[in-house]
Amino acid sequence: MIRASPPNNRVFSLAGLAPDLTPLLDIIFIVLVFLLLTANLRLTALPMELPASEHATGVMAAEPITVSLSNRPPDLWGIGDRGYSNQKAFERALISALNLEPERPVALASDRNVPVQRMLDVFALLQKQGVEVAEIAMQPQATAP
């Protein structure tokens, strides 16, 4: 005989008719990861021109404005023989030195342990002041006998 209603021992519900969404969620996450990895991110960078050889050394035409960065207090910044413990005072002094002699070259001497961010801040300040070329003073490596 044919019965039109479900038997009493089974419960009929609509929850059993819903599709399984797990594979769909997997595909959505894979596409999301793909889009995040291929997104074009704009990176901020300072343009730098490095010498072609690591042994290339140049002679400056004039005595440069020497900017020094140290990691030992109290003088963390320096211009020539004068030290500064305050970054704002250092920036004001550097800007005034650049305004007095705009054609004078700039050389940056940095301690090995100074964070790179401080050096990049100096380069950004020099770039804002229109200094296109700044030399980086490096200590020559000792050659083994």
Descriptive notes:
The mean pLDDT is 79. β1 and β2 form a beta hairpin. The protein has a five-stranded mixed beta sheet with strand order 3-2-1-4-5, with helices on one face. Helix content is 30%, strand content 14%. The longest helix has 17 residues. With 145 residues, the chain is of the alpha/beta class. The chain has three helices and five strands.
Percent of residues in helices: 25-40%
Uncertain ranges: none
Structural class: alpha/beta
Count of DSSP-assigned helices: 3
Strand order of the largest sheet: 3-2-1-4-5
Strand content: 5-15%
Could you outline the blueprint of secondary structure elements for this entry?
Layout: H1 22-38, E1 65-69, E2 77-79, E3 82-84, H2 87-100, E4 106-110, H3 116-128, E5 134-137
Parallel strand pairs: 1-4, 4-5
Antiparallel strand pairs: 1-2, 2-3
